[in-house]
Write a structure and sequence with these properties.
Blueprint (H helix, E strand, L loop, with lengths): L6 H4 L2 H18 L3 E3 L2 E3 L4 H10 L1 H19 L6 H25 L2 H6 L4 H29 L4 H4 L3 H28 L6 H4 L1
Antiparallel strand pairs: 1-2
Helix pairs in contact: 2-3, 2-4, 3-4, 3-5, 3-9, 4-5, 5-7, 7-9
Amino acid sequence: MSKNNTLLGVFSVRRIAIDAVLIAMFFGLSLLSVQLGGIKITFASLPTIICAMLFGPIDGFLVGFLGAFLEQMLKFGFTATTMLWILPPAIRGLFIGLCAVLLRKHMSVDSILQTKRPYVYFIFCILSGIIVSTLNTLVFYVDAKIYHYYEYHMIFGVFWIRIASGIVSSLLMALVALPVVAALKRANFIPTKKARA
């Protein structure tokens, strides 16, 4: 059986190890989150963005999904809405990963830093923040209805503030992720496609 037909042919040991480290980082950063009423300020998705840019949508989805799953299990245990709470970070990884694949067709990560058009990357990251904030609001609503703590002002009254904080945090994470990914690639920590062939 050839290497390309095995799971490790698709996901190398190094790639699986990097994903595992990023999942652990997601969980660690989630512990540093700040909750202000119905708004959560967190940089837990930074490892998801880095992973999605390095390896694409599947890895980005897995890091967001498993990182959020660990956070939910260790903070709240398994509940009726656990799977709903872990979807928004996973969808961020999927979305950023798909966008990174599109960007790679036109420019490399290094060229995003060096060109006058890095705004496309930032637009994708900001859109991911809007998507995640909207999904979190919907999950918050479902959770509140199931567990009978619904209050309009906690969920929808701060919706635009939640969107604004999602945009700001996404922009900050994008600013940090881009040089980290570029440095990892320049240091050959992440093999290029030519090196893998």
